[in-house]
Design a protein that fits this description.
The complex is a heterodimer of chains A (108) and B (118). Chain A has strands at residues 4-7, 10-13, 19-25, 34-39, 46-50, 54-55, 63-68, 71-76, 85-91, 98-99, 103-107. Chain A has 108 residues and is mostly beta strands. Chain B is an all-beta fold. The chains are: A mainly beta (108), B mainly beta (118).
Chain lengths: 108, 118
């Protein structure tokens, strides 16, 4: 099973700042099949990024994903108030598909 | 519009059985996996496993194998997650998600809250 470790656990930033969230895999992710999801309290997760760097439909271009192999990053260029929540990475290249433990992005 | 609509919240006692549902609309139900995800209170996301509605083939995360059962009725575009004997530790939110074969989960249901308490 591939273990995903996200860092930091919590990130406190102000609107307008740049946010960088990381995800490290215990072994190489097949075909860079790595997705990022955002979850807000009381809501289902929402797909942001798939294939490590492709934005999902309707996701603003301030979100960008990068990385390959075992190290992946999602960057939010200028934080908007609605961007705060918990972010999860997930690999879907090897079964069982696994999630990271999440990074909480909160308002400073 | 592609949608997954899940059944409503459930409150059960330990040892009881339960089946929750996930109904797809707006797409061809038999051409995508349905994946089930657990989120325990205040915790992260865990993949339970998936079912292919086309032929009801399944994959269970070894951590959940033997405790839950997936099924699907493609004639009514509905997938199910079932327990034969609930435990208090099954208390969680359960999400279904559409997953194109070997791809990412792109559409999620709203979740079903399951509470198991004596």
């Amino acid at each position: 099973e591939i273990v995903l470790t996200q860092s930091p656990g919590t990130l406190s930033l102000s609107p307008g700042e740049r946010g960088t969230l990381s995800c490290r895999a215990s072994q190489s992710v097949t075909s860079n099949y790595l997705a990022w999801y955002q979850q807000k309290p009381g809501q289902a997760p929402r797909l942001l990024i798939y294939g490590a760097s492709s934005r999902a439909t309707g996701i603003p271009d301030r979100f960008s994903g990068s990385g390959s192999g075992t190290d992946f990053t999602v960057t939010i260029s200028r934080l908007e108030p609605e961007d705060f929540g918990v972010y999860y990475c997930q690999q879907y290249g090897s079964s069982p598909h696994t999630f990271g433990q999440g990074t909480k992005l909160e308002i400073k | 519009e592609v949608q997954l609509v899940q059944s409503g919240a459930e409150v059960k006692k330990p040892g009881e059985s339960l089946r929750i549902s996930c109904k797809g609309s707006g797409y061809s139900f038999s051409t995508h996996w349905i994946t089930w995800v657990r989120q325990m209170p205040g915790k992260g996301l865990e993949c339970i496993g998936r079912i292919d509605p086309a032929d009801s083939s399944t994959y269970y995360n070894p951590s959940f194998q033997g405790h839950v059962t997936f099924s699907a009725d493609k004639s009514i575009s509905t997938a199910y997650l079932q327990w034969s004997s609930l435990k208090a530790s099954d208390t969680a939110m359960y999400y279904c998600a559409r997953q194109p074969y070997y791809r990412h989960m792109d559409v999620w249901g709203e979740g079903t809250t399951v509470t198991v308490s004596s």
